[in-house]
Design a protein that fits this description.
The complex is a heterodimer. By secondary structure, chain A is mostly helical. Helix content of chain A is 72%, strand content 0%. Chain A is globular, with a radius of gyration of 24 Å. Chain B starts with a helix and ends with a helix.
């Protein structure tokens, strides 16, 4: 093989980096500038030019369309789902790490096996179940299945972190006569806080962006969440290209804000379960 | 995908066993796990069995569920759309893997470098991950529009064709959009893995006079093989379930050119009201996912772990 000196190799790597930057940025730039364009300029202007008369009217049209209610629904569903996930998974992960008997290990295996299974293939029985329980077209219809599907990855991450808590600390708590519940809350929880944040971000992103459950499990406008509303906008606003893209931009803004504030946690959250 | 977790988990448990085994203390009550078991049982395990049961039933989504024996299976396996979906899903899975893996490895290695500008670029690389699949699908539908999409910006006739409207290009266009979405995620995984490669290996290579390219092929790539196995499983099982992106971008069209299995399942169930038939497709997707996961797990065998740790 021809040996290339360090500097020359860096040119190859650098070129690759800048090319990928273009691949990433150009579509996003197009979305933003088009959302600022006047509707009648969309067909006339060069698609990548900055609009001559930038306008926020497309955003006004989106907000005139109940979009704030969909944002509210998405916030509720995301928040409650993550809360449910953490409430059920933290104690479960605690048990899995603290007990060594065969039954517990088997339980762990059952949870973890969910990772290798394409759960979306089960949407039809989920739909059946939601109708039978009487939750169809409620926000709970989105919360419960989303939480259940997130259990495998959440338990995997939490147990991986909990295993790093030194046994001696647990023993010290036991010697002090602390109950298991107290040990969990006062010892285990603070020590795995980074993992809890990571996994909460991961689960929140998945729920916030989820489309399939809202599509099949809700129907009415009052229970609409952002991804579903984007899709419906697209059907209604077929000719209003800036309007559709403005809705896309608005749907990303909360996540972008979170990314700017806590990029490190977010990146950790995105790769949850693999970085560790 | 669970392989790595199991390994690290196993190793850690081993460590604890070595140092002073706990007394007879059995740990907290199993009741702590009960809420998770109930939620997982009701909304994940029961549907898993339910999809198999429903594949033998007749159900239109509203009325009563009635026994249909092997009827759905015969009908679905004889339906050319099922075969079409299977074929398209296999093409998509293989192509997505083949496009994303090399790009993700290169970008992961690139981002693992300590140079300032690389960290700076990485901040932008992750942006696609912030978009929901629906948002990406809608954005690219417009971006690829022959009337007002990006193609018009350069005045090249080739770029102005209707990529999503032509059955010959639609699936390949989808594959590229999927890659745009998910390459950042996979490159993140590789970045983490590259950073864990012991620096001593590179030092030794440098002393032996190996250049950067040589180091990439003889150290970086071999050291990435476990991440490669994990990441490939993630990618492949993921490919079996792409629904949002495809549904919003093409809805299966033009014709049935992008009617992948998950989409076929959705249309049969929720558009043609044949929930039994849709469940058959669901079972097929499940079976493929499980078989592929097991196969990849086997291939990346846990027993090889030690050889990787040798000489470190």
């Amino acid at each position: 093989m021809i040996r290339i000196k360090g500097r020359e190799y860096n040119i190859i790597a650098g070129a690759l980096g800048w090319i990928w930057l273009l691949v990433t940025i150009v579509p996003i730039y197009y979305i933003v500038v088009t959302s600022l364009r006047e509707s009648n300029a969309v067909y006339a202007d060069n698609p990548l030019s900055f609009p001559e008369h930038p306008t926020l009217s497309a955003y006004e049209r989106v907000f005139a369309n109940d979009f704030l209610m969909y944002v509210k629904n998405s916030v509720i569903v995301t928040f409650v789902t993550v809360l449910v996930i953490l409430l059920v998974c933290i104690p479960a992960a605690y048990v899995i790490v603290r007990r060594t008997d065969v039954g517990t290990r088997r339980l762990y295996k059952i949870f973890i096996s969910g990772l290798a299974i394409p759960m979306q293939a089960t949407i039809i029985p989920v739909y059946y179940l939601i109708i039978k329980i009487g939750l169809y077209d409620t926000l709970w219809a989105l919360i419960l299945p989303s939480a259940a599907f997130a259990i495998p990855i959440t338990i995997l991450i939490l147990t991986n972190f909990l295993r790093d808590v030194p046994q001696s600390l647990f023993e010290a708590m036991a010697v002090d006569g602390a109950s298991e519940f107290k040990t969990m809350i006062q010892l285990a929880l603070p020590m795995v806080k980074p993992a809890v944040i990571t996994v909460a971000i991961y689960d929140a992103l998945n729920v916030w962006n989820g489309f399939l459950f809202p599509l099949i499990l809700t129907q009415s406008t009052e229970n609409r969440v952002i991804p579903l509303s984007l899709w419906l906008f697209q059907g209604q606003f077929t000719v209003d290209v800036p309007g559709i893209l403005a809705a896309v931009v608005i749907s990303v803004l909360p996540i972008l804000a979170a990314y700017i504030i806590g990029r490190r946690q977010m990146v950790a959250g995105l790769t949850a379960g693999f970085g560790k | 995908m669970t392989e790595k977790a199991k390994k690290t988990g196993g190793r850690r448990r081993g460590l604890h066993d070595g140092g002073g085994r706990e007394s007879l203390h059995k740990g907290p009550s199993l009741w702590y796990a009960a809420p998770a078991m109930v939620l997982f049982g009701v909304f994940a395990l029961i549907p898993l069995i339910g999809v198999v049961v429903l594949s033998f039933m007749n159900w239109d989504g509203l009325g009563a569920v009635t026994w249909n024996g092997l009827g759905n299976w015969k009908e679905m396996l004889g339906d050319p759309l099922t075969l079409n979906g299977l074929k398209l899903t296999l093409i998509l899975t293989i192509a997505c893997w083949a496009v994303q893996t090399p790009v993700s490895i290169l970008l992961g290695v690139f981002m693992a470098g300590k140079q300032k500008y690389r960290a700076f670029l990485a901040v932008f690389f992750f942006l696609p991950l912030l978009f929901s699949s629906t948002a990406v699908a809608i954005a690219f539908k417009n971006i690829l529009d022959p009337q007002f999409g990006i193609g018009k910006a350069f005045g090249w006739k080739w770029l102005e064709q209707n990529f999503l409207g032509d059955p010959k290009t639609a699936l390949w266009t989808l594959i590229l959009v999927v890659s745009w979405c998910f390459v950042p995620l996979h490159s993140l995984l590789y970045q983490g893995a590259v950073r864990q490669i012991p620096a001593s290996l590179y030092e030794a290579a440098r002393i032996d006079g190996a250049g950067t390219v040589r180091q990439f092929f003889s150290i970086t790539l071999p050291q990435l093989k476990y991440t490669f196995a994990t990441d490939s499983t993630l990618m492949i099982v993921g490919s079996l379930t792409y629904f949002d992106l495809v549904y919003v971008m093409t809805a299966g069209g033009p014709g049935n050119a992008t009617r992948l299995m998950p989409l076929d399942m959705y249309i049969k169930g929720f558009k043609s009201y044949d929930m039994g038939g849709a469940s058959v497709i669901g079972v097929l997707i499940l079976a493929m996912g499980i078989v592929i996961s097991l196969l990849l797990n086997r291939l990346s065998g846990a027993d090889k772990m030690e050889s990787q740790m040798e000489g470190v």
